[in-house]
Amino acid sequence: MNTIKDSSMKLLNILSYLVACYFLLMGCSDVVIWDPDEDELKAYSRIYIPQAENSVVRLTMDDEMTETYETRYNVFLGGPKEAREDIPVQFLVEKEMVNIYNEENGGTYKLLPSSVYQLSPESVIIPKGKRSSESVSLKIIPDLELEEGTYLLPLSAHSEKASINEDLNTVYIIVDVPAIIDYSENLVLSLGSDWGRLLRNGPQGSLYLHDNEKNLWVYKPNSKGVFKESPVKFPGDPWDISGWFYTINDDVVMVINDDDFQGMFRFVVDAETYFLSPTPTVNPDDPWPDNFGFFNGDGWGNINILPQGDFIFFENMDDGDLYRAPMDAFLDMWGGTWHKHGWVEDPNNIIATDFNQYQQVVSMEEGYLAAVKDDGTLWAIAVEADGEIGSAVEIGSGWDQFHTLIGSGKSILALDHNGDLYRYEINLEEYYELEVL
What we know:
The protein is built from 5 helices and 33 strands. It has helices spanning 2-28, 38-44, 95-105, 289-292, 327-330; strands spanning 46-48, 56-60, 69-73, 76-77, 87-93, 110-111, 117-120, 123-126, 136-140, 149-158, 163-164, 170-177, 187-190, 198-201, 207-210, 216-219, 232-233, 242-248, 252-257, 264-269, 276-278, 303-308, 311-316, 322-326, 350-352, 358-364, 368-373, 378-383, 389-397, 402-408, 411-416, 420-425, 432-433. 25% of the residues are buried.
């Protein structure tokens, strides 16, 4: 019984498979070919700009945009048939499209002046038997005389010989023209009066800025030392309590917290982004090595750190004492645990006691400290190769107008109370008498 039943089931399955194949073959034998009539051809045979699918390109025209921006466009005939005759197509820039774009996007764009762009050729042809035209070249030419504002260049295709696909017919070039800042008088960055809480030097001439929202930003200079590139915000937390930043040898940054403990933490600098990451150690003497391996002790809030070659100087901003220690000892990964190094305030390491006469003291890479007195005079204090402090020489006046001074290579960066940052390359043979800016 079971053998007969199994044989019957197999036969039934085979017959079912054959029937299915029959109907499938019968269905495939009827090939449907669409032969559109004239009305259908008109409905589908519309010209369009393929690049209009990603229709907006945005440019910023400043003195960094020194080369002409160039792109190319063509037109294409949609539908099932090639062109039955030559189709002339003209590229046009229309003021009305600016108004429409402003209404749809809530903008206030102005039409880009014709003197700033070139379109060549302005007319093309989709040849008979083809679907696409040759390309046209659009060039945007930098013009630093162009008035500040945001401009729009809408480029559309038009033809009297074919219908237009209005959804894919216009590309928009947005050109931002920022306010031109005059950098001729040493100005390298304009932050505004509400610029933030802290501005310090970073690696390779960069700057770390702590804003009023307690975010941390990095500014990078261009080849001329001007900070025109938009700043980049630091990722991650916590930077809200970070109060002081000291960059050493371009690859290490010591960060001191602005809190009750004023602890110092050591960070490694990313060579490309200048972002910071902690440097953990495994010092067995640390009570919590997993959490505080990059911790360098508490109580650093009253210390101004001044790197100088093979030495590190510590200015006690409360009493004006200046201490000195070897740089290698300071950068020792087996540093302190819960208290800063004992030699920071060791009386045997005091090499000067009169630094409270200065408002600000910064370290310069050329082997000296630059300092400003209450009367606004600028002084250069020599640092000898063996770490001894030499005599102070007056090299300028009018420097008390600045909120913050930053030593940056051979230059002093000076931030005034309006948030404008100026760069002065210092030559110790000259005298820098500044007028009020």
